[in-house]
Inverse folding.
């Protein structure tokens, strides 16, 4: 990966000669940068990033909780969404064929792409066949995954992102760091500098007031919408029963791309299918509440093939595999394909909130990225370890993907394959030996109290000696308590026996004054 560029001053930004601090576009959007521990350590040193992330994720979490709390059958909706996605995975080949038949019958053309290179080639050929050198794009994770913008640029075709956050990322020469809010790592002042330096037609006196920033982007994009002959989109859902495609968004840019250009090209991962049109009623309740914390998306666009005289008169659907059939064949991990890209798991993850999306080295960050990226690439990865296994991601997932269980399974595979790092196999065998015998476990827990001397004034152990240093290289440890649970329990039972022998009535034992207990009790 190229070295991260340094930030320059605001005056330099206004002059237009700017390299913004960010993540340069990688050669492979699913694999970039250093290992997660190294990247996470780097990002933890960025205080501005942590402030941006903390504020944004807390706001989204609160909005989501409020609108989810209004739905009395929320858990039933989650069950329905999970069941529908399971049905899709069980019948994917047949459903894909049904979708192709219905899209074709309604005037569309279906293309099948085995990998990123094939998908990019199809899009470039279609654009060149129309004689276009510029396309407008709807926000799309699938096109980010295959590096479509960069592939088109090599063919002399410029792709303009029309989602506001994606536009910010594109103008900065950056990479997205969140599934829903790609520019979550940027604040208003940074966005103003990016616009004045890179947009070209931004007002010279542009401030960092959100309304002014939005108006500048609107004026810039409106000219693109009115002149573009070709648009490229992703798809939130593809309905096998009718051949209908759907995009949900909040700004209206998607609606402009899906209706104004003469030609529309949609790149859709093969897992985005739903069986019937009526199934949309489940997902159009689950998705907006889980993603933006809204009861419904401001813009829900659906199109079915080509309608003479209305909207694009040429429609192409590219069905993208790019590792998905490999994931489908994995019984333990295939539910990662249930993901509807809501990003709820990112917003509750304590790891993501502190390190941001760039640390994951993939366009899919956070908990879902930690299970999806290794499976899509089929390569060894340390991403399954980028989690506390707290389970918060499963609790908020609208389709009940059991991310913690998949993480554990992927970790086991890394250890068994020998890719988990030097010493992991021996460490796990030692742990198994200790934990398989109660007496050995109690002795080991007692020895752990010696670690108290290594803790700093804040009660944290940041460095262990010897082999333990491999653990603290990427995580801290709390200071061990003075007394183990087994020791506390033994003392409790002994005290209970003494009180019983003294004839004290149950429930009349003397209660300690608040704050007078031992350190462990407090």
């Amino acid at each position: 990966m190229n070295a991260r560029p340094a930030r320059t001053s605001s005056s330099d930004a206004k002059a237009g000669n700017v390299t913004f601090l960010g993540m340069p576009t990688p050669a492979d959007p699913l694999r970039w940068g250093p290992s997660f521990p190294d990247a996470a350590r780097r990002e933890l040193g960025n205080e501005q990033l942590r402030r941006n992330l903390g504020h944004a994720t807390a706001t989204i979490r609160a909005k989501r909780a409020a609108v989810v709390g209004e739905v009395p059958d929320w858990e039933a909706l989650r069950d329905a969404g999970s069941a529908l996605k399971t049905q899709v995975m069980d019948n994917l080949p047949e459903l894909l064929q049904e979708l192709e038949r219905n899209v074709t019958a309604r005037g569309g053309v279906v293309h099948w792409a085995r990998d990123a290179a094939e998908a990019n080639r199809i899009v470039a050929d279609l654009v060149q066949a129309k004689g276009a050198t510029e396309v407008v794009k709807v926000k799309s994770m699938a096109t980010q995954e295959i590096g479509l913008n960069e592939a088109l640029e090599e063919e002399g075709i410029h792709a303009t992102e029309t989602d506001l956050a994606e536009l910010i990322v594109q103008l900065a020469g950056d990479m997205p760091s969140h599934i829903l809010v790609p520019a979550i790592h940027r604040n208003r002042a940074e966005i103003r500098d990016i616009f004045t330096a890179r947009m070209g037609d931004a007002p010279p006196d542009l401030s960092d007031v959100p309304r002014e920033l939005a108006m500048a982007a609107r004026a810039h994009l409106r000219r693109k919408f009115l002149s573009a002959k070709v648009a490229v989109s992703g798809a939130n859902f593809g309905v096998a029963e009718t051949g209908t495609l759907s995009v949900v968004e909040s700004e209206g840019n998607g609606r402009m791309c899906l209706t104004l250009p003469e030609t529309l090209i949609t790149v859709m991962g093969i897992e985005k299918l739903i069986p019937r049109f009526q199934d949309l009623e489940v997902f159009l309740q689950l998705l907006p509440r889980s993603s933006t914390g809204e009861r419904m998306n401001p813009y829900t666009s659906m199109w079915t093939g080509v309608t003479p005289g209305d909207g694009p008169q040429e429609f192409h659907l590219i069905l993208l595999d790019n590792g998905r059939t490999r994931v489908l064949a994995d019984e333990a991990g295939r539910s990662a394909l249930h993901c509807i890209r809501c990003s709820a798991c990112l917003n509750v993850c304590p790891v993501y909130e502190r390190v941001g999306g760039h640390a994951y080295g993939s366009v899919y960050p956070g908990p879902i990225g930690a299970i999806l990226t290794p499976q899509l690439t089929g390569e060894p990865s340390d991403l399954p370890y980028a989690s506390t296994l707290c389970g918060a991601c499963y609790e908020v997932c609208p389709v009940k993907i059991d991310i913690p269980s998949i993480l554990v399974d992927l970790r086991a595979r890394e250890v068994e394959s020998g890719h988990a790092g030097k010493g992991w196999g021996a460490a796990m065998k030692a742990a198994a030996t200790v934990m398989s015998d109660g007496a050995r476990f109690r002795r080991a827990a007692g020895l752990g109290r010696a670690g108290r001397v290594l803790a700093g004034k804040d009660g944290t152990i940041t460095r262990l000696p010897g082999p333990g240093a491999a653990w603290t290289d990427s995580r801290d440890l709390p200071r061990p308590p003075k007394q183990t649970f087994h020791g506390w329990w033994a003392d409790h039972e002994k005290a209970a026996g003494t009180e019983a022998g003294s004839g004290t009535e149950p429930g009349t034992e003397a209660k300690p004054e608040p704050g007078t207990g031992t350190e462990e009790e407090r």
Q: What stands out?
A: The two ends are 49 Å apart (CA to CA).
